[in-house]
Structures are given as structure tokens and as C-alpha cells.
Amino acid sequence: MRVALQVTCINDALFPDTGKAMVTLLRRLGVDVEFPAGQTCCGQPMVNTGYLDEAVPALRSFVDAFGGYDAIVTPSGSCAGSARHQHQIVARRSGDAGLVAAVEKTAPRVFELTEFLVDQLGVTDVGASFPHAVTYHPTCHSLRMLGVGDRPRMLLEQVRGLRLVDLPAAEECCGFGGTFAMKNADTSIAMGSDKARHVRETGAEILVAGDNSCLMHIGGLLSRQRSGVRTMHLAEILASTEAAPPTVAPLSVEPVETRGLAL
Amino acid sequence: MRVALQVTCINDALFPDTGKAMVTLLRRLGVDVEFPAGQTCCGQPMVNTGYLDEAVPALRSFVDAFGGYDAIVTPSGSCAGSARHQHQIVARRSGDAGLVAAVEKTAPRVFELTEFLVDQLGVTDVGASFPHAVTYHPTCHSLRMLGVGDRPRMLLEQVRGLRLVDLPAAEECCGFGGTFAMKNADTSIAMGSDKARHVRETGAEILVAGDNSCLMHIGGLLSRQRSGVRTMHLAEILASTEAAPPTVAPLSVEPVETRGLAL
Amino acid sequence: MTATFVGMPPFPTAARAALEDTQLRHNLAHATGTIRDKRARVVAEVEDWEDLRTAGAAIKDATLANLEQHLVQLEARLLEQGAVVHWARDAAEANRIVAGIAKSHAVDEVVKVKSMVTQEIGLNEALALEGIAAWETDLAELIVQLGDDLPSHILVPAIHRNRAEIRQIFLERMAAAGRPAPTDLTDDPAELASTARLHLREKFLRARMAVSGANFAVAETGTLVVVESEGNGRMCLTLPEVLVSVVGIEKVVPTFADLDVFLRLLPRSSTGERMNPYTSTWTGVTPGDGPQEVHVVLLDNGRTRALADEVGRQALRCIRCSACLNVCPVYERVGGHAYGSVYPGPIGAILNPLMHGVGEDAQTDSLPYASSLCGACYEVCPVKIDIPSVLVDLRAQVVDAHRGGVPPVTHLAEAVAMKGVAATFGSSRRLGFAERLVRLGTGVAQRLPVATPWTNARDVPKGPPESFRAWWKRTDGGRR
Amino acid sequence: MTATFVGMPPFPTAARAALEDTQLRHNLAHATGTIRDKRARVVAEVEDWEDLRTAGAAIKDATLANLEQHLVQLEARLLEQGAVVHWARDAAEANRIVAGIAKSHAVDEVVKVKSMVTQEIGLNEALALEGIAAWETDLAELIVQLGDDLPSHILVPAIHRNRAEIRQIFLERMAAAGRPAPTDLTDDPAELASTARLHLREKFLRARMAVSGANFAVAETGTLVVVESEGNGRMCLTLPEVLVSVVGIEKVVPTFADLDVFLRLLPRSSTGERMNPYTSTWTGVTPGDGPQEVHVVLLDNGRTRALADEVGRQALRCIRCSACLNVCPVYERVGGHAYGSVYPGPIGAILNPLMHGVGEDAQTDSLPYASSLCGACYEVCPVKIDIPSVLVDLRAQVVDAHRGGVPPVTHLAEAVAMKGVAATFGSSRRLGFAERLVRLGTGVAQRLPVATPWTNARDVPKGPPESFRAWWKRTDGGRR
User: Which CATH superfamily is domain D21-28+39-303 in?
Assistant: First the structure.
């Protein structure tokens, strides 16, 4: 089985540690994962903002990069959802029959990480160790678009030393929503603040989820509030072992240079 | 009994509605409160930052303005605490025996609003109406420096229509602390965020306290988080009646002008 | 004594103001939370709930696919039963018809129930211009009307008000509208309700004409159906001499068997009750019983436009249960007014653009973006409207509407950005270059206006020293 | 295998880093919350708690007022009982004395307990330079030492570590320090404790010399007192041949009756226990029982400097209970390392500047500002140290120390601002003018660097259209 990593554009540029964790984790499970260098983005940012024509080049890159693989694994419920549910819409609108045919092949082969581990590899104990209190936020697209259900929890429950704390109102959206966070910044912040508040209520050290975009939003609020709670992608926790715990890379607080000035 | 309003510098400049509410409330209770125009500041900002000499001019203004009064009422536990506990220290250091003597007269005549209402006027039902869910934060200086105890609660419980909700960890500092909020901004925010979180947990519409400085800090965080919870000074709630409810003046959210630009 | 949604600002602006309304936020959080939990409980009781949703969607789809045939059948049955049937293409036509009926009977007031569709067409304002007072009789609608206010929820239009305010509104405004409130009125809920009851009772007994909407219209029998909780609807529908019902053309269902599915779906989805308290049905005129003159105004007003939309037409399945509002995290925080329409929430965010068309006013064009696309609405919709997919499709329509023309500045910037993004994502080589720029730029980004909405409340992650792509290349995928 | 507080950055910088340490934040919140509640419960049981606090403060004050006399008495009694008494003015002297004793016995290792004061003077590092290993035997201190780490709490020095980390530290570091940890060690607390026990037992049996601190020194009898929870202290104090106790001169209490007050105040304030598990007392040498050579090093190291401070001298009452740490909202969030001293928290924020003096290094000068002056520390202090007042006085000392000289830029800006503020608040006319400027400036303020720490996470209130002062003048106090 030829397996490709779809690292996603946001992870490639901003969260490379998640991509590295995917490689570490999959190799440990015996999967010789490849990284097709031609990949760019699933096109979702354009599609969800209404720019469907502008998503076509991304889509062409996608099918070119991943066309030959049996499975395409991605550390993002949102990007997996985009590939499975939106690619065909964009392809049809483009009027390119070749693209429609190519998408028909790639779309069903895209798996979100937990789907791939539990359904394709049939594994829930991935040999991870992470001795911390953790709470899990099911991102909307993995929860409702993909229906990953209990898979993340099944995986987390097998991690040595990890204490999983229930997140209140877990299934409520964090308010990121891609361009929603920009176009409706105030509402997005109101939603995110409530999510951050619920995370704080758990007393957990780490908020984990399957999408770094949502985590960037919630983590940005937690950091701005100096909450002492950090966010981590599920892949990084599953990749963590006693011998190789994750390097701590909290969301950076931009230093404020003008302290000391009174009143 | 000649009664003077010490409005405090922060209320004078930033929260004049609190001063007006003091006037409304005290007049309704038959107190012909005066506003000595010579007043400036109690000097606490300088004292608590370590600038004791610089507090002397403020102190002179204070005793000049309030020297002739039987009672000096202030809508700030912190400023009352400063007058009662710090003025003598500053006066002694100045080496001015006249100032020491003057402070000896004014200091014990300074009352925080709830002390004045409950102890001096002997009233807990001030005829107020405020049909909202409210939670009360006891500011550190009113709680520990003055020991106002149950007085605010006794007053709030008599307000028609008001539903008083308990604030978790109420007695923990909000993290303002005057220049602390600037000199130790990160820790201050961490403390304030927890306070804001506890406020949100109550489900109350309004956070009330006896010090606008603390409220500015907590309210600034609540507003930044688009929490939908507003802060109000206790005086404004006690001044509110059915016929004259308070004008709603939430902490302004500075409009963000660059929305609509994608990604 | 009427307010209007006309001229509302675009959603983000209206939302910003709503987010600061502490009482609205408090009431919304409480109300939506309560109804949401109630709905979840009673829906869980129904074993074949998913099948029921599928059946509801299928019936509506089949009906909409042959809408003309069902409407013609409905008209025929209504005529047979002594009703007068009117067809209205738009709001103006519908208002003209209703005003004409009122004037022909020389009434200067009408009582109203199930008023959402008449709010859609601005009937009260139109009647007022003709000197006819229209009195809302649903308790919440009455509060909204007396308060010179706008509804903020499909089911609970006065969700943004508290008891003390309602008391104040009754004390100050009831006298001008009929029987005054007692001067010693308190804010005790039972007292407020009985005051409204006495006030309304007088209006019911006096009014000679009623105007209603309808939840359903059964084509095979010509029967209109109104479901409600207070009984005031039944008063409205039975006491006056003349009854005019304004009915959106999507309300038709073929048979009573079909109706059964919706009477099971609606109350559980709407109020979280197993069954709604009052279900009134009437089939034209029944001699000697109820209104002896019955009119039905079949209203298009943008519905055929929505029907022509391949993706969006599913929105016409909507049975106005408000389940999507109660689960919507956006609605929960901003309330109904921000949507600038009598149809708020997720369903409003698609229904309004579908009925009005996009590309014409900024307010309508802002609605498809008033969602984080979380999908909670789709999950609870009793007729399985895939609201997120419709929203995305409408966003494309908004963008397409502005292609070629001269877009507003913000759209221009966005469009230019998107073109750049499209080019970048078309080539992994270009992407690698762009990523290096991004890393250079994260520090700078906080100072640029583009970052403001983000950094206003959130910290931005520092760009990593190296992209994944660069790491993979440098280390041969971690192998060296 | 030692770390040092030397060269720590000023508090705000250290705090910023600590605030991002998720595990520290988690452990601190949990631990301080737990101990705080426990303390509150057991203190509430004691009816005369306030009298007890007053008594404790009075005894310490009286003793400090005649400190020399009590120390001389203590020395006399110790000599009578066969102990050797040394006086050390500073850390270097104390370290030289201890190293000298060790060398005179040709030992290359010592066991230690109650090590706070020896951490203050850097004894372990000094002994290491002489080729002498110093082994901590308090479990938490052992973890800190093996982990090449610093204590972060007076009572729970390893509060920032978790079980898995402790297991890792034991596995990796124990072997180099003595008996290795079993290779199949798990992170089960009982297993970790028994591993430490076996490791330490070997050291106790091998060591010929011990170094301790003391909680109290009773002048009337020459008795030293150590209170602890593990029993390791008693091993240390009784097994070796030579015992050297380094005792701060403020530890002296006149009589056993006085000691009684503190033995009641300490455990409830410290661990929230009614009584501490192990109280060891020894009076010089007891022939044939315990160490046959007993040294006591009476240490000043800044204590007389603190004693000379009229406001600050009350800090010398401190009995190191850590109650002020556990209630401090600042400590709860940043932990002990940020204070850059073995004495962290509110007491550290005054004790360090009092012992070192201010105006010399930025780290010490930052400590008096590491508090919001909330007063919770004063409320729980068993010897009623008015920490907030001392903090304010120390702030004045910091400011005064920089008057005249060339202050650093930030101080300069602050000093200039304060002079301006002083002038403004000296005149209500000038204040009125300044307020108008403030209102003009609030919009601008957000763009200026001065506002950054504030607006980083908080919204700023808009300046009102009119100050209270202006309103009063315009309306004659609302009368017109």
C-alpha cells in the first residue's frame, strides 16, 4: 500500500512539527509514508470564501500529487472533509472532465489521521507516552463532516500516562471557521473565548485536537489570556514516547517591550 | 453634617457616571453632598509605585479640599484605604508638621460608599431597582484594607429585581494592582483572565464592584473577549430606579476597520 | 408602533453591537441552552427519528418538484370549500390584497396570528398607511409590537426582553392599543400573562377581521393548519367574521398522511415538546361555524427564485421550527436582529439571500458569511437542509456576482488576494517561496492592519524556522 | 549537579517565561489550591487563632529587639552542652567554616537536611569546589538536586515536576549519586518513594557528617529544633558522627514556652496539619547518643541589615511556613523560580531586598513590584508580617536609591512621568487641563507604545465626553 502524507498548507508553513510527528508516528507503525512534493493546498480556504474558480489550480496540484497513492493521510479533519465533500463540486464547475475523473479517484482515498489509524491500520494503541492532563476538542469538520466519532478518544485512552479530562460543551464550534475569524472577528472571538473558558475549566495542561487551524485560534486566545494551557495536535501526542517526548513549543507570546513605564 | 464627595481622579476623568450616581444616590437619601473643586487625587498611584515625595502635592490638595468636612465619601475602597492607611506615612516623611496634623483630621473621616451608607446613614435599602442578574467582586482594598465585609451584599440584596449570583473565588485579586498591571503585565493578565472566567461562570449580565480601577481591568478583558458581560460600579446600581435606570454605557470595543480582507 | 428591518447594517456590524448587549447575551445563552437540551431529550425518545427526517425531506422535495400541480389542487379544493384564493407575486401585491379585503369590510383594525410571513411582507406598515391597525395576538409578538421592537427569534420573538421591561412596556403602551394595564402591575409572570390575556380578549371580541399565516396547507383537502402554544391563535382563527391567511407557496403538502410526518417532526424540533398544545385546521368556510368569509393569499415573494437555485432550493423545505437557531453558536451570541430579517439564524442566512438574490445589497451579501460552517444546524434540521453546503454555494454566488463589475474596496482586496493565493497553490515551487515570505512576515504581520482583527484578541504563532517541506527536503524525510 | 539562582532575570521577564510553562501552572494551581483549603480548615478549628498570631508576632518582635542578648545566651548554653559555636557574617564565612569542619574530618561527602539556609549561602557549590559532595535527603530536595534543578516552593521544592519526570530523573541520575534506581521502576508514587528510601538509607549509613538548618533555636536551653514530615531529617540529625547546623540569627526564641506558640502556628500554616510528624530537638552533645561533635554556625548574611530597616524588620519574624506563597495569586501563576531566590513568593519579595539592599541590581529591585498588593499574604501570615506595607516601603527605597544618580531609561521615563503627575495633582486647575488632554488622548493612546502592555489583552474605556468636574461645574452639580 502506497501511503502519502497530505501535510496541509497551514501545517507546512506554520506547524511543521505536526508533519514531523505524522512521519514519526506512521513509520513507528510500519507505514513507509511518502511526501509528494507537488502538493500545495486542498483548496478549502478559497472554496469556503466563495472563490471556487480560484480553487481549481490547487485541486489540479492535489490530484497530480496524490493521484498514484492508495491512501492519502492528513492531520486535518477539515482538509479531509474538503477533499471528500468539496473537490467534486469544484471539479464539476471547472468543466474539466479529466479533473472530475481524477477527483473521483483521490477523494475516497483521503483519510484523516484517526480514520487511517483505526480503520485502515486497525490500531488504537500506538505505543505513545505523554504523562500530562489533556482535554480533547472535537473539531466541527472531523466531528460532523467526517464523523470520526470516538476514534480520537480511543487512541488517546491508550497513551501511557495521559489523563484525559472531559471538555464541557466539547461539540460546540470554537469560532475559527477559516475566513469567518476575519470577516466576523467579534463573533469569532466571542465563540473562541467561551471555548477557551471551557478548556480552562477542565484544569488540563494541554488542549488537543485534530486540526491546527482551530488550535491556532483557541491557542491564540489561551496565550493572550496567559492561561498556562497549551495546544497540541493529536499527531504530536501520538508520536510522543518516553524516549522522545515532544519538544515544548508553546504559542509564542509576542514580548511587550515597553514595560516599566509607570501609570 | 457637611459631607464631601471625593470622586477620585480615575472616576473624574474616565468614569464620571459613577460620580453622578453618587450624587443622585446621596441626594435621594437626604444628604446634600458637596464637591470640593480643589480635590485632585489621593496620591495612591504615586505611593504604591514608590514615589512618596511626589505624593505630597496631592496630599496637600486633599487636606485643603476636604479639611472642613465631617465626612468624606468616596466610591473607591482603594482610595479610602489610601487616605486612611498611607496619608500619615507620606505626611510624616514630608517633615511638614502642619500636614501631619491636617491628615490626622481628614484620614478618619474618609468613608468608602458602603461604609458611609450602612454605618453613617444606617441604611441598607436605598430604594434602588435594577432587574438584572449581577455578580459582585469584592476588591482587595475594600475587602482587606477597609474590611467592608458584608455591607455591599446587604445593599445589593435590597435592590428590587436584582438577582445576586455568587462569584467563584470571589476574594482572589483581579490582578489590577495599579502599576502592577503595567510593570507585570503578563501576570496581571493571567490573574485578570481567571477573574473574568469566574465572572463568566456565574452567567450574570453585570459584574459589580466598588472600585472602577479593578473594573476597568476586568471589564477590559471581558470586553476584549466579547463576553457579553458588562461592568458597573456599585454606586450606579444603587442609584438606579425604575423611573431612572442607568444609561447603558458598556466598555467600548474599539472598532476594527480592516474586516473583509480575506485570509 | 412598528419597527422595521429595512436599512439594517451588514451582519458583522450589527453583530458587534449585539455582542455588547449584556441582557441579550444573557437571555440568549439561557434560552437557547434550555431549548437545545429539551429538544435533544425528546428527539432521543423517537427511535426512527432519522427515518422521519428523511421522510420529511423527501415529501418536501417531491412536493417542490411538482409545486405548480399541488398549488393548483390546493386552490381547487379551497374554492370548492367556499374560500377565496388570491395569488400574490410579491409583498406589494399581497399587502394590496389584504388591505383591499379590510377596506371592503370597512374595518379599521385586524387581529393577527402566525405573523412571520406578514412581517416578511411588511403588512402591518402597509395596513397602517391605509388607516388600519393590525394587532399582534401572540404574547411574544404583542410584547415586540407594543415595545416598537423587532422579533429576535422565530419561536420566542421577545427573547431579548426581561420581565421588568415587559411590565414597563405594558404599563406605558397598552393603553394606546386597547385595554390598559393595571397601574399596580408587578413583574410576576402570571400577572403579566393575565394582563395580556385581558388586553387580548377585548381585541378578539371586538375584531371583525383576522389575518393569519399557516404552518401547512394540505392540497388534497384544501385544509390550512396552524400549530401554536397559547390558544390565542385559535381565538383569532375562529372569532372574527373574516379570516385572511397569507401562505407562502412552499407551505403546501400533498396529503394528510404527509402532514402527519411534519406534525411529529415540528414540536420536538421546535419547542422540545412531544406534541404542540393547539393544532387548528380549517377547510374553507363551515356554515354557521367560525369565519364566514375565508381568504387565502398564496405568496411567492422570492420563493420561485429560491426554487430555481439548484443547491439552495432545499431551503424551501423549512418548516420554521427554529432548531437551527437554538444550536447555532453564532445565533446564540448575536441573536436575531443582527440578521436584519424576520428569518434569523442559519436558515435566515440562506433563505434571505435565496429569496432576494445576491450581489445587490451589502446586508444580504453578508449573510452567507455569518457562519463558521460548523454544521450543527444541519445535524438538527428536521427536514435535513444542508445549510453549510448552501452557505458555501451562496458565498460563491456572492463572489461571482462581483466578478467583472466594480466591487467594493474590501472585496477588491480580497479578490486580488485570492487570485494570488490561487496562483501560489497552483505550484508547489511558488508555495515554497511564499512560505519563506510568510515566515519573514509573521513578525511584521502584527503591525499591519490586515492582522488587526486577529491580533486584537489572539496571539499569533511565531513562524517556525523551517517549513515542513524544507525540512523534508533537507533531511530526506528525517532519514538523514 | 547543582543549579544556581545567580544571574536570574528581573521578575517580569522570568514571570513571562513561567506563565507559559503549562505543567508548572497546572501543578501550582492544584497544589496551592489544595494546601490553601487545608490550611483554612485547620486554622478555623483554633478558636484563639488571632491571639496566637499576635502572640507569635510579639515574641519575635521582643526577641529581635534584644537579639544580641538572646544570641549570647544561646551561645553560652550551647558551649555548656559541648557544642562548638561559630559566627558567620556572610555566606563566604559560613561556607568556609563548614568546609573547614569537613576537611578536618577528611570526609568527601555530607548528608543534608533543612537546606534552605545553606541554599541561601550556596554551600553545596562551595563544598563541591573543595571536592566534597553534599547530598540532599529531603525527598523533594533530592529530586531537585538530582534533576540539576532549583527549588520552586519553600515547602514543596519540586512542585513543578510530575511523577513521570521524577521516574526519569531517578533512572538517569541516581546511579551517579549512589544506589541506582531499579531499571523496571514505574511512576507509581509508592515505588518512587521506596526507591528514594533505599537510595537515601545507603547514604545515611555511609555519611560521617551531616549539615542541617534549624527551624528554631531556644536560647534558655541551647536547644536546636527541626520540624519535618519524612523522618529523613531525624536520620540526618542522629546517624552521622559530626553535625553542623547553620542557623540564621533570627531563628532564636527565648524560651520553650515561646517555642510552644510557634509549634502550634507552624504546622497549621504550613502543611495544613494539626501537628507536624517529626519534631527533632538536640542540645549540644549527648554522650553516647547521636553525633558526638556538634557545630552551630550562627549566620547573619544580611539579617542585621534587614533588622536596621524600621518598616522591613518585621520580615525577620518569618518562620518559613509558606502560607503566603500558597495564597498569593502572583505566586500561584508564576511559581518560585521567577523570584530568583531560595525565598520565593511574597516573603521572598521583601526578604531578598531587605537582606541584599536595593538600588544595586535590577533583579532585586524588581521584587518589591512583584505583587498586586492584594493583602492575602498578610491575612494568613502566622506572625502577622504586613507584607503589603513592607512592599510599598521597599518600592520607595528602590525609587529613592535611583534619585540623583543616573537611572536606567525605564526608570527615567517613570520618574519624569511621576514628577509631572505630582505637579498635576498638586492643582485641580492643572488636573482639569490634563483630563481634557487625557480624553483627547485615549484614541491615540492605543497606538502609542505606552499602551501596549494594557491593550495587548484588554480593551480600554473610551474617554467620556466630559469629566465629572466639568459636569459639576456646567450643571451646578446636576441642579441646572
Answer: NagB/RpiA/CoA transferase-like (3.40.50.10420)
Q: Show the DSSP H helices in D335-466 as ranges.
A: 345-356, 362-366, 376-380, 387-402, 409-425, 428-445, 452-455
Is A90 in the same domain as A188?
A: no
Specify which residues D226 forms β-bridges with.
D280
- The predicted pLDDT at position D436 comes to 66
B95 assigned to some structural domain: yes
Q: What are phi and psi of B72, to 5 degrees?
A: -120, 110
Residues B88-140 have pLDDT tens digits of 999 999 999 999 999 999 999 999 999 999 999 999 999 999 999 999 999 99
Chain D from 246 to 285: CB within 8 A of any A CB: none
Q: Do C417 and B256 touch (CB under 8 A)?
A: no
Q: Of the candidates A91, A120, A149, which is a domain's last residue?
A: A120
Q: Which of A96, A120, A144 is the last residue of a domain?
A: A120
User: Each residue's pLDDT tens digit in chain D (480 positions)?
Assistant: 346 676 778 999 999 999 999 999 999 999 999 999 999 999 999 999 999 999 999 999 999 999 999 999 999 999 999 999 999 999 999 999 999 999 999 999 999 999 999 999 999 999 999 999 999 999 999 999 999 988 888 888 888 888 888 999 999 999 999 999 999 999 999 999 999 999 999 999 999 999 999 999 999 999 999 999 999 999 999 999 999 999 999 999 999 999 999 999 999 999 999 999 999 999 999 999 999 999 999 999 999 999 999 999 999 999 999 999 999 999 999 999 999 999 999 999 999 999 999 999 999 999 999 999 999 999 999 999 999 999 999 999 999 998 876 555 556 667 777 777 777 778 887 777 766 665 554 544 444 444 456 667 888 777 788 999 999 999 999 998
Contact yes or no for D372 and B191 at CB 8 A: yes
- D29 touching A (Cβ < 8 Å): yes
Hey, are the CB atoms on D187 and A224 less than 8 Å from each other?
A: no
Retrieve residue D71's grid coordinates: 544570641
- Write out chain A residues lying below 8 Å of B194, CB-based: 200
Rounded to an integer, what distance in angstroms lies between the CA atom of residue A169 and that of residue A208?
15
Do D478 and B23 lie within an 8 Å CB cutoff? yes
Instruction: Give the separation between CA C451 and CA C394, rounded to whole angstroms.
Output: 26
Say how many domains are in chain B. Answer: 2
CA distance B160 to chain A (A): 30
| Co-location of B112 and B137 in the same domain | no
Task: Name chain A contacts of D163, Cβ cutoff 8 Å.
Answer: 131
Report domain extents, chain C: 21-28+39-303, 427-475
Query: Rounded to an integer, what distance in angstroms lies between the CA atom of residue C325 and that of residue C332?
Result: 7
**Residue A134 is inside which H or E element, if any?**
strand A133-136
Beta bridge partners of D134: D110
Chains contacting chain C through 3 or more C-beta pairs under 8 A: A, B
A253 and A138 within one domain = yes
Report the chain D residue with the minimal C-alpha distance to residue A130: D164
Find chain B residues with C-beta within 8 A of A259's C-beta: 182-185
Number of inter-chain CB pairs under 8 A, A vs D: 80
Between the alpha carbon of residue C110 and those of residues C59, C214, C228, C248, C289, the distances in Å are 35, 17, 19, 20, 19
Nearest CA-CA distance, residue B88 and chain A, Å: 23
A172 belongs to a structural domain? yes
Residue B245 inside a domain? The answer is: yes
CATH code of the domain covering residue B234: 3.40.50
C131 touches chain A (CB under 8 A): no
Query: B40 and B107 share a domain?
Result: yes
B113: containing domain: 3-120
Q: Are D236 and D113 in contact (CB under 8 A)?
A: yes
Please provide the size of chain C in residues: 480
By CA distance, what is C445's nearest residue in A? Answer: A254
For A185, which of B49, B200, B256 is closest by C-beta distance? B256
Residue A189, in any domain of the structure? yes
* DSSP strand pairing (C278-282 vs C223-228): antiparallel
